[in-house]
Structures are given as C-alpha cells and as structure tokens.
Specification:
502 residues; alpha/beta; Elongation Factor Tu (Ef-tu), domain 3; 6-stranded antiparallel sheet; 12 helices
Length: 502
C-alpha cells in the first residue's frame, strides 16, 4: 500500500533505474520551498530521494507555473540583517548549512534596501534546475491523495498551505486532529512605467542601505490626511470576495488583508503597511497646494523582478474584488494610471496542531516514519518554511543512515522556531479549538539572555538602545551555539559515515 494511490496517476518523468520506490529512500510529498530544501539536504548526504509534486498536473488556487518553490504571496525573504533581526539570523543559519533556497535567493536577488527580495521567476527556475539535475533526487509529477506508510519507511509531508483536499482529509484521518485553516492574501503587482513619478519617489525607509540594495529601493506614494481618510472609508465600503465554505476562518496577524486592518480602526493602516515614518517627499516645495514633506500615510512598492519593470504593493494583501482593487488603488497619488500585472487574491492555508502531534524531530508521535515540514507545521513565511524543510531533510537522512540528529539548540533561530512548533506553544485551558497559530521566527521565541545594559561610558541603556543591545546579544549567542552544534553533528556523521569526511 502506497502513499500514492496507483490507480489515479503514474509518474511522468521519474527515472526509476537507480532505486525502486520500495527500496530504502526518503519520500517527500510537496516540492515547495520546504520540500525542495528537504530533498536537497537529504540528497547531499548521499540518501536517495523521491520528490512528489502534483503540479503542473493539478494546480492550486494561487500557483501559476509548474516550477518548484514558486513564490505566490510576495517576493521578499524579509530582513537580511543577521545581527539585529531574527529573520536575518535564520538566513545566516541556513547559509551556514548550505541551503539551496538561500543560494538560489542570493543568486536572484533584486534591490530591496536591507531586505532580501528576489526575482520570483528566476528564483523558482534556479531551484527547479538544481533539483532536477541532482543525481540523488527522482522528481515525480503526481498527486498523492492518500496516506498509508507501511511500504514507505521515511516520509516528509511538506505540502504547505495549499494541501489538496483529498490529502488534507487523509492527514486529518492519520492525525485524528481537526485541521485548522486561515487565509493568506496575495498583494497586487504594478507595471513600473505606469507610475506617476511627479507624485511618487524612490526612497528606503530612513534611507537604510542593505545587502545588494541602496537607500532608494522602494517607490513611495504619499497621501495627505483627507486622501487617507477617503481611502480607508472606500476600502471599508468596497465589495469583498465572499467566504463561502471558508466562512469564519481566522486570519494570520502577520499577513492580514488591508480591508481587515481598515475595519479594525481608522489609523491601523497608517501604523501598518501605510506608515509614513522615515520618509521625506522630495516633491514638497512649500508652495500652496504642494505636497507636504511628511505625508500622513504612504503606500510603498517593492521591486518584484530583476528587470525592475514590476513592483508589488508592500503589505497590500487583499480579498477585494478585482474591479474594486483597480478602482481604489488608482485613487492613490502616483497610481492614477496604474497598470496591474496581477491583482490581489486569496489562498487557503492549512496546518496541523503541531505541538500536540509532532516530536522535537518533526515526526508524528503516533507514526514516527512520517515527518512534517514547512507551513503545514504552523510556521509562517518563506524562510521559516524552507528552514524547517532543511532540518527535516537532514533528520530524515540521519534516520536512513541509522543515526539520530538532535534539533539545533533553542538559542538558535532554527532551534527556537522548531521549539515553538513542537512544544514551545502554550495551549489555552478552555475546551475550544486548539489555540496554536502560525508564527514567524522572532526574538520572542528565544530563551532569555543576560546582556550588558550600560554603554561603554557607563550610562544605563534605555528604550531602543537597550532593545538593540539585547538583539545583538541574542544573535551573537545564536551564531556561537549554531557553530558548536554543526561541529558536533559533523563529528557524529563522520564517525558513522566515512564518506562524510571526504
């Protein structure tokens, strides 16, 4: 009995000569960021991997191609600052572990200030080519529609937020848990040459310069108080996509649609994706009717491809109807004649109650031959998804070799994220549904640390200075602890597997 229902589909491009499906191997279901990274990491150890992906035979509501690791919500991997930001720290940790996802992101990055953003098509194509060229990976185009693990002894499920309904039902039957779901929303993309630069301007917030970028990587569109109030009111009155069968599904706070934020209060948007802080309008000249140097609110657009022809509206995930999006977004100064390469939309996100179901090595407690990785575990974000795939692939390969790979220390970004997923979350006492919700990596997941709370001159640190010192202490500890863990893991692998020393 196979995880694949053999009566439904047969592989289109599998090369089966090296290893039949019944021989020792790792089977990975889903070739998004987590699945692709897991396959790469496992294959790099010498393990053979079967990577099963239903696209392009069966597409999802959000994907547009059959390429692996396709980015559907944004093209940003967020901050690349490993000294002051938890996301930048996990970038550093993944690079330290030869991450395929980070390698392809670095090769396809586009200017985005201190953030790491990529050309989404180039990135996905690079991942696809690397996976298909690896001699240890057999990619199979097929939909996995049922779960029965008797004949596959090492399985990683990384089907992500767009898990097919049939497989989601099978996962529910296997785990005995009611599946939780919420909406992720897709931001619109605009053609750069349709933006009016007599009103918009280039500037990164606080002129911050980042790797591969400059101090002017974002396009900014300013709104005064009246324009902002009118925009918020229009968003509140606009027609939205009906929930239908998804009615009542909660939103993840880190990726809320603009209409949900607008409905929560008149100033929510200007303290969220439309915050004006750190930006100065160069078109201001002090004359009557001219824009103010400091806008009341600002819409930012970030480069979406290498050519610089497409820009996405930062933080403007939405479930507004398409016609309403065009009408409303063209009321934003600078976007009156905007041409949209893609309008916003919605896609479902499904995840398991990982703290109750998974052990510290991402295995099902009731069926340890099955691991989960990626967003289906309840991590949120491209980087976090790929990071869990990275460690799941390494752990699966260790199991195949008869070794045990312990999780990274919880003082590291990856270890802190795993700890949250597999046990760091505190359930509510009431008898309602599980309270576990998706989480981005952040310093709040790290164990506390003692750090120097005074300046070199002996002055007590307060506010932002104190916060910055704490972050630097956390990242320094994480880098040291990750290095020690990697060294220990390599010694263990070398002792068990002479090939690892070659």
């Amino acid at each position: 009995m196979y995880l694949l229902d053999p009566m439904k589909q047969q592989p289109h491009n599998a090369v089966m000569s090296r290893n039949s499906r019944d021989e020792p191997a790792i089977h990975i279901i889903g070739a998004g960021l987590a699945g692709s990274e897991a396959a790469w990491q496992a294959a790099e150890t010498g393990a053979h991997v079967f990577l099963h992906e239903m696209r392009p035979g069966r597409m999802t509501e959000a994907h547009q191609t059959g390429n692996l690791a396709e980015l559907v919500c944004s093209n940003s991997f967020r901050s690349d600052d490993s000294d002051n930001n938890a996301v930048g720290l996990i970038h550093h940790e993944m690079r330290s572990m030869a991450s395929l996802i980070m390698r392809c992101a670095d090769e396809n990055k586009v200017p985005a200030g201190s953030a790491l953003a990529v050309d989404r098509d180039g990135f996905s194509l690079a991942v696809t080519r690397a996976i298909e060229a690896h001699p240890g990976i057999t990619k199979i185009d097929e939909e996995i529609s049922s779960i029965a693990v008797e004949s596959w002894n090492n399985v990683i499920i990384s089907t992500g937020p767009l898990t097919s309904s049939s497989l989601a039902e099978a996962i529910g039957a296997l785990t005995g848990e009611e599946q939780l779901a919420f909406f992720d929303a897709i931001a619109p993309i605009i053609h750069r040459d349709s933006i009016d630069f007599s009103k918009a301007w280039y500037q990164s917030r606080y002129d911050k310069v980042g790797p591969g970028g400059g101090a002017a990587d974002y396009i900014n569109c300013p709104l005064d108080r009246e324009q902002y109030s009118a925009f918020v009111e229009a968003v509140n009155q606009a027609e939205k996509v009906e929930f239908k069968e998804w009615e009542g599904t909660p939103y993840f706070s880190g990726c809320q649609p603009i209409e949900i934020m607008a409905a929560s209060g008149p100033d929510t948007l200007r303290h969220g994706p439309m915050k004006p802080f750190g930006l100065t309008n160069p078109n201001a000249n002090g004359e009557p009717g001219a824009p103010a140097a400091k806008a009341h609110a600002v819409v930012q657009l970030r480069q979406d491809n290498v050519l610089g022809t497409l820009y996405n509206m930062v933080g403007f995930q939405t479930k507004l109807k398409h016609a309403e999006q065009v009408r409303l977004f063209r009321t934003i100064p600078g976007l009156e004649n905007a041409e949209f390469a893609r309008l916003g939309g919605l896609h479902r996100n499904t995840f398991i109650n990982s703290p109750a179901l998974l052990d510290p090595r991402l295995r099902l407690k009731t069926e340890p031959r099955v691991r989960f990785a990626g967003q289906i575990t309840g991590c949120e974000g491209y980087v976090e998804s790929a990071a869990t795939g990275l460690i799941a692939g390494r752990m699966a390969a260790a199991d195949l070799a008869g070794r045990t790979l312990e999780p990274p220390p919880p003082t590291t970004a990856l270890g802190a994220l795993l700890n949250h997923i597999t046990g760091g979350h505190i359930e509510t006492i009431d008898a309602g549904p599980p309270s576990f919700q998706p989480m981005n990596v952040n310093f709040g997941l790290f164990p506390p640390i003692e750090f120097q709370k005074t300046s070199p001159q002996g002055k007590r640190l307060r506010g932002s200075e104190k916060s910055a010192a704490r972050k630097r202490a956390l990242t320094a500890r994480a880098k040291m602890d990750l290095g020690a863990w990697l060294a220990s893991s390599r010694r263990e692998e070398t002792g068990r597997n002479p090939r690892a020393a070659e």
